[in-house]
# Entry
Amino acid sequence: MRSVVPTCAKIATVKDLRTPLDWIDPVYGPAAWTSHGPWALAHWPQVDSTNSTAHRALHSGIDQKALHRTVYAAAHQLQGRGQNTRVWSGEAGKDLAISVLLTQSLPSACPFALNLAVSLAVLEGIESHLPQIQSASLEVKWPNDIMLKGKKAGGILIENNWRGNTWASAVIGIGLNVGGKAPYPNATQLMEQIETDSISLLEQRILNRLNGRLSEMASPEALLRQYHGRLMGWGRKQRWQLDGTEIRGVLEGIDLEGRLCVLEASGMSCHAPGEVGWLGMEPRG
# Structure
């Protein structure tokens, strides 16, 4: 990773803003910019949330094409969030928190392809950095949780901006509990002991994998097949909750619209993200 010479720390007007490096966050000030391959990375000691920071950059007046493949990272998030406004707590300096901003080449015909590509990239990035983690124990739980040995080690939050039928931008938040204390009983950490540069190296490995996976979004069927191979509980009986009613059935799979498809005693039903809450696995037998 090579350093990028910082711009002059003056208050920039919209007229002054020509590149992402010209932008100074109005809440947390200038970032330390670096680059890694095609990615431009902005780092702060702490922010409210990296997704919120990426949204501020997106609405700063910089040409949106120039913001493509910018990454916003912090050693600590004060108000990290997950799906459906859930809070994601991290420990300063021990967890990974980044948000990737994409403004070009988004797959409007199959938006879920982005979720597939990101999920696979995160799993592969973790395995590349931590080869001691076995692939069989590292999975994705629909729709956005990263699971290690059945416990949550992180998550993905994708927030989109559409202009009519055109997908204008996507902010991809990735949060991983690398070595911090598990924030709740069904959570875990990727490493028992943090090593020097572990967070930045893991960040680079994930971005390397993401660079390749994004190029595969034109083939969502192939991505979906690979996603199913890493899907927690695929083919197993499980329980979910829908509007206060319990659903029991076999997880048949995820379709290209991103819906969870469950084979119940009464037949097949499919549910969009946010419609159902996971209650747990049924005992094997």
